[in-house]
Amino acid sequence: QKFVYDFTEGNKELKDLLGGKGANLAEMTNLGLPVPPGFTITTEACKVYLASGAEPPEMRDEVSAHLDALEAGMGKKLGQADDPLLVSVRSGAKFSMPGMMDTVLNIGLSDASVAGLAAQAGNERFAWDSYRRLIQMFGKTVLGVDGELFEEALEETKRAKGVTTDVDLDAADLQRLVEEFKGIVSKETGRDFPQEPREQMDLAIRAVFESWNTDRAKLYRRQERIPGDLGTAVNVCSMVFGNLGPDSGTGVAFTRDPASGHAGVYGDYLQNAQGEDVVAGIRNTVPLADLERLDKASYDQLMQIMQTLETHYKDLCDIEFTIERGKLWMLQTRVGKRTAGAAFRIATQLVDQGLIDEAEALQRVSGAQLAQLMFPRFDEKAATELLGRGIAASPGAAVGKAVFDSYTAVKWSRSGEKVILIRRETNPDDLNGMIAAEGILTSRGGKTSHAAVVARGMGKTCVCGAEELEVDTKRRRMTAPGGVVIEEGDVVSIDGSSGKVYLGEVPVVPSPVVEYFEGRMHAGADDADELVQAVHRMMAYADRTRRLRVRANADNAEDAARARRFGAQGIGLCRTEHMFLGERREMVERLILADTDADRDTALDALLPLQKADFVELFEAMDGLPVTVRLLDPPLHEFLPDITELSVRVALAEARQDANENDLRLLQAVHKLHEQNPMLGLRGVRLGLVIPGLFAMQVRAIAEAAAERKNAKGDPRAEIMIPLVGTVQELEIVREEADQVIAEVEAATGTNLKLTIGTMIELPRAALTAGQIAEAAEFFSFGTNDLTQTVWGFSRDDVEASFFTAYLEKGIFGVSPFETIDRDGVGSLVREAVKAGRATRPDLKLGVCGEHGGDPESVHFFHEVGLDYVSCSPFRIPVARLEAGRAAA
Ligand code: ADP
Ligand code: MG
Ligand code: MG
């Protein structure tokens, strides 16, 4: 096993082994770009170190051999007194990660070699500046000295001299600062700053390995779902110097604008500076375009290199570079981060440039990005004062009055106020407040905190971990860094997509992307619609590519019409229980309370025309497309008054001796229907089997509606779906009755309705006996919400607020199985049921309804197992279309 790779030996595909930085340094080296020579120690070496507490023995020799080669190539030795080779030691994992060790520059400098460096460069000041930087970085990141101590000493030196920037310090000042820094190291660590160059290097390498497991890095990995066992690589890179004077400098750049995707010159440059100076804000940088004036030759070369990189990576790249006395050096590149909007624009621009094809373009965007573009957003131009920033935990733009406890949130929202619930952190007791609030803001916790998890589950805007905002729940106030105090009742605006928190009401504008899907904006050519145009094109690519069809979960004509505008190819789930609410609830009550067959028939007869009318509308809105209607599913108690409320009402009435007959009967029924586990109780197909005439009425309503549409020259395509089937016998009984009703309706109306009957697969037993069930079902629709609930034994209405936060924090799963399909458990049942079902009935139609149908990762899974369609809420349809395209590309 080889633990060390020269930059000439790697390439960009080796990110697992060499980390992102190392792999791309190698790639640039091999492209012939000016990269300072160096080598990369692999992630494998890191893994050995972390497992055993020591570097693998071979690694030390390999490092020595590579260092020898580097020294030979450079014609000087590491830390050589009269002409020192200096190196940087740079961490570089596969994914870049906060909390990992910072880079240490200028390794190899010592009391002995600082004079040599000065003499070689002919620049005393530069040598002492480099040395003080080394002690500062090494002291802080390798030896763990509080960085503030160095900062303070530096500030004090500047103050004493009456200057404001580091470039105003001369060689003598810096030499004194070096002595001071060495003193800080000795005092804080009980040892002197290491003078031996190789020891400096080895200690730095080891510190990089160890930084893999800092608390911050671990937390970040868990939140971003980065595996904990990848390890980091370490890059040792010969130094080039941007701090040699005004003809030197350092900069960062993008090959195109990461916010808009436009081509152009984007970056910052700082003269006479080293390393992070440019991003640390210690002095004012100049726009990259100014480099043309400062150093035309380097500028031209840089532009050319950026062109090369973009053509080579076929994507937007970001880069770090340094100019040493007019000579340009490339220090880093990677495929750059971008906004969601830029991702769409860049993908289409690259297609136009012929750099990538449509299939590749689809891989450059994601459903999550599209979802982000569909949220309404703040009109940033009109934004008021920015109070602070937190973690963008759940997207959206929310405005409301600040409240600091859930009780107030509920109370105020009941009286019609919009509120933002502000807490240090939330816990399950805050649930009601979170439901009542427009958005949630916390000052603690990351993406897996209670607030974040629950808010995402509810689709509510949330900014969490805004640490700079001081939340004082006792005094009901929040203090922002500038000293601005927000009291209860003050209006704040929070942006769950950017994590920004504003004072006052920021106006909200609808997303142009939604306007486009709604048909209110066309993919026209003017500049404002550039994003819409890009989305339009990407959707076309996806639609051309995907195999999965996309349907909507919709219960009424209005939702159905929107779903159609959003590209739905049918309805995968129409929940008929939603047709039993409102003023019809009373009729359902009558049905439940019926003592005699006659009473029940009367109740059903009253419901029939209402149901039928609903279906007529729905079939009309979805004319020509399939509509899957699910027969009544939820437990009946959901249609009755709450047991506690009703008990109290009856008890009070009894005390006044005027108890109402109907309430007493209701209470009796509520008691009779009360179940310990209603989700495992009398619901779904069980209702159809226990309540005579209920399913028959629903089937009749569907059939009559279909017949009416047919006779009106429509093209209704209804599919009748039986929920919660666990065994084929249940389905057979319901089917027999349904077939008979349909035959009656057909005879009476002179139509051939071609209604199909199928079932949901949402119980483990149904999945396990799918082969048998398929004998009585023309289609399966996987009800993955209930299936997840029953496979895991998780109550989906409770878990998110109770123990899921703990599970996520402990890394038991990276994402809730109710959000993304659990491939190994629930997924394998789906996979087997697909196989068994198709073995029985090769033309069995297969789909999924349930939240997973609109979840990007899950859509890929459903594509893989060969379903025919996914069905999701109307707003998720574009996401599902895009992801289905990506899955097939
Ligand atoms: P990060 O991953 O945090 O960007 P880097 O390893 O890229 O850290 O280094 C931090 C800074 O130091 C960057 O600005 C980088 O360009 C600069 N740097 C790193 N190695 C060298 C080197 N050998 N010569 C000059 N500057 C360097
Ligand atoms: Mg860098
Ligand atoms: Mg269900």
UniProtKB/TrEMBL annotation:
The protein's Enzyme Commission number: 2.7.9.1
Active site: 450, 849
Domain of life: Bacteria
All residue ranges annotated as the PEP-utilising enzyme C-terminal domain in the record: 533-884
Annotated Mg(2+) binding sites: 762, 786
Pfam families: PEP-utilizers, PEP-utilizers_C, PPDK_N
Family indicated by similarity: Belongs to the PEP-utilizing enzyme family.
Protein name per the record: Pyruvate, phosphate dikinase
Source organism of the structure: Streptomyces netropsis (Streptoverticillium netropsis)
